[in-house]
Amino acid sequence: QVQLVESGGGLVQPGNSLRLSCDASGRTFNPYPMAWFRQAPGKGREFVAAISWDAVTTYYADSAKGRFAISRDKVKNTVHLQANKVKPEDTAVYYCAEFKRPAWELLKISDENEYDYWGQGTQVTVSS
Questions:
Q1: Strand runs (DSSP E) across 61-110, as ranges?
Q2: Cβ burial 71-84 (10 Å sphere, 16+ → b, else e)
Q3: What is the pLDDT of residue 29?
Q4: Which candidate among 11, 30, 44, 98 keeps its CA 20 to 30 Å from the CA of 38?
Q5: Is 89 helix (H, G, I), strand (E, B) or coil?
């Protein structure tokens, strides 16, 4: 059984940085793309970034381009999201998720319905 556990959230001031982590267990080898989504208060879940199984390919939402960076440690089976120059509108619960299929499908990689496993989320609050 795949389990995803996020960590690293908290209160951060605008303009600062934080690093989220997702520890994945239940597989000795993970051939699936992984992604980060977020859900702000009163809004639906929003795609942030995704990364291929080999960490060669990444894809970002427009809101994340240039400020966020997704990375992956294949040995430790962890995924990270580095968020720089954060803004109040980045306030949300951030979720880690595993894609349904072991393939990079650009047209579907940002669709939350294409993900089978989710973590419980970690709260990020950007405020001074």
A1: 68-73, 78-83, 92-99
A2: ebeeeebbbbbebe
A3: 81
A4: 30
A5: helix
Q: Quick one: average pLDDT of 20-46? A: 94
Per-residue pLDDT, 127: 96
Neighbour-count burial of 96, counting CB atoms closer than 10 A to its CB (0-12 exposed, 13-18 middle, 19+ buried) = buried
Average pLDDT for residues 88-108, to the nearest whole number?
A: 95
Beta-ladder partners of 95: 37
Task: State the distance between the two ends of the chain, measured CA to CA, in whole angstroms.
Answer: 40
Q: Give CA–CA dist 83/91, Å, rounded.
A: 11
The CA-atom distances, in angstroms, between 95 and each of 22, 35, 43, 53, 128 are: 9, 8, 14, 18, 23
Query: In 3D, which of 41, 28, 35, 21 has the Cα closest to residue 2?
Result: 28
By the 8 A CB rule, do 14 and 87 touch? Answer: yes
Q: Is the dihedral of CA 72, 31, 94, 61 positive or negative?
A: positive
Strand 45-51 and strand 34-39: pairing?
antiparallel
